[in-house]
Structure formats: structure tokens, C-alpha cells
Hints:
binds nicotinamide-adenine-dinucleotide; two-stranded antiparallel sheet; ten-stranded mixed beta sheet; alpha/beta
Amino acid sequence: MAHRVTLIPGDGIGPELAEASRRVLDASGIAFEWEVVDAGEGVMAEYGTPLPEHVLESVRRNKVALKGPITTPVGSGFRSVNVALRQELGLYANLRPARSMAGVVSRYDDVDLVIVRENTEDLYAGIEHMVGPDAAESIKIITRAASERIARFAFDYAVANGRRKVTAVHKANIMKLSDGLFLESCRTVAADFDGKVEFEDRIVDNMCMQLVQKPELYDVLVLPNLYGDIVSDLAAGLVGGLGVAPGANIGTEAAVFEPVHGSAPKYAGLDKANPTAMILSGALMLRHLGHPAEADGLETALRAVVAEGVATTYDLGGSAGTAAFADAIIERLAAVSAAR
Length: 340
Ligand code: NAD
């Protein structure tokens, strides 16, 4: 039976990346029925909002969405569609794998990290105010419920994906109450996985240094919102940057898979943008839907094309456009599937 998935193409380079990703996923051996819905600036005039209710309804109904990047106006204008989606759908876990790829220029060749970021609280709860004219205060919220939930997500992910270790990242030496509670919650959950998944913790500043010096020592990292935001970009930098960084936002009722990069307006419609991050997000979606073999196949095909560096986009050293890059992956997928 085909999986019914909401496809939000997005804007800027989003539509061409979405089309390339959809074609590659359709060649993965798993059947999809795509429900295409639009969000962002283009629908403002018609619906008065960048995130119309029928888009949310579609994701709620299908429980899974693949999404292209959406432009957020700076300063004034509507709030980020991405943030709104996370809040409306309760997508509490941000999952960002960072794995080295042959053919992608970076300082390391053996990084294989998975960053699990808490998506709902911490300093991102948005509770800020001025204290008189010359001081401002932001409130950091950490709860046991959200911390245990994200820790459990990280451990469950580790078990489901054959990962050996979870590292909790914090600053509990200074923020003894808030980060202390996060760490304590991680320890509580870790006890349930004793003997199955290793557990350790690191102070966030030391973690950053260690990731730069010896990233191969780490496996799954679980972090509160702010550190997760920063460290996941650091991890993306270790493996070659935004063009190859996939992501997912996952909740109990729905999951949205999307590249980490933005809508790169200057490349919109030019058939130049690199579809790797969105295709890898599609591979994450395949795993989420219970198809690890097909996800592996898709990643193997993509990696082979990237390693050759010929039928890739310009940023990966090739001379192909977005669509031709996707064609090369599809061709390779046929060979990978036949060999399985
Ligand atoms: P960006 O990721 O769009 O671009 C940063 C740089 O990377 C640019 O030089 C761009 O050309 C390049 N780049 C990004 N993706 C690429 C790809 N797939 N192939 C080749 N080159 C690529 O970041 P930005 O310029 O800060 O943001 C542009 C818009 O995207 C903004 O409106 C921002 O709010 C939005 N945005 C959306 C999301 C999302 O929808 N999840 C995420 C980040 C930014």
C-alpha cells in the first residue's frame, strides 16, 4: 500500500528540490501518494496566512510531510512558517544526522553523528522582557517532562538505528537548576537502557572542542534547544555544510522532514541548487516509515554519485543541474536495488 505523504514544495529553490526528491523517492522501491500543498509568501494573498489551515490538516491527516525551504521575511511580515509548523504540530524532537560523504570537501572523512535537539522550550520559549530601559531578561524554561521525552527519543533512536552511545550535552556546572534538571532527566532515562546503549555527558563548551578535535568518538548527542541549535550547525560544518545537511522535526502525531538550508532565492528557478540535503531528508523519512533497507539503498546510490563528482551540482564539483543530478541517482538506484 502506498504511503500518503504531504509534500510542501516551499519557495525559492524549494520547488525544484522537492521535484528532484519526489522523483528519487518514487524510485526507491516504496510507493508514495503525494498530497502537494503550498505554504509561504505565495499563498498569503489567497489565504491571508503563509500557513493555511488545510496545510496543517494535510500533515495531521497523513502524519508525515516532506518540506522544501520557505522564505521568512526579515523584520516585519509573517512569523516563520517553520516555527509555526513545529508549534502547531507539537514537533518536539529535531533530528539532524551529520555524516561524512566521499566527494564532499570537508576537514574530516569519518564523522557519523546524530544530533537530537529539544525543540519546544529552553531560551526559545520566547519569554523576554525589558527590565527598565537598559536591561533585558530572557527566561530559560527546562521541564522534567520535555527533558525526559527528548532523552527517550534519543535512546529509542539509538536502539532502532543500531547506535552504541548517547551523550547528553549541558552546562549544569553553571546552570545547576535548569541544565541540572536536563542532565538528571537524561540520567533517569539512561537507566532504562542500561546494558543496551552507553550513556555519558559533556559540558557544552568542552563538547564543541571535542567535536572539532575528535568527532569520531561521538555517536548520538542529545541537547536542550539552544545548545542543540548551535551544535547541530557545528556538526553540519564538520561534514561539508548546509547543502548536504538533512533534518527532521518529529512529534507524537506527525513528522516533517526537511533540509536544514534555506530557500537560497538567488538560485531559484535556475536548476542549479543541490538537492542532496532534501533527498537525505527523504531517506530519513523512509526510515521513519519503517523502510531502512530502501533508505540505505537510496543513500548508497546518492553517495556513489556524489563520490564520482561528475553528475553533481556545481557546489559538489560536478556540472549537472538539479534535475540531472536526480536522474543520475535514480539510475544508480536501479543498479543498487538490482544488486540487493
Ligand atoms: P540559505 O540556506 O538559503 O543560503 C545560505 C547560502 O547557502 C547561500 O549562499 C545559498 O545560495 C547556499 N545554499 C543553500 N542551500 C543550497 C543548496 N541546496 N544548493 C546550493 N547552494 C545552497 O540561507 P539564508 O540565505 O540565510 O536564507 C534564505 C531564506 O531561507 C530566508 O528567508 C530564511 O528565512 C529562509 N530559511 C528557511 C528555512 C526553512 O524553510 N527551513 C531554513 C533556513 C532559512
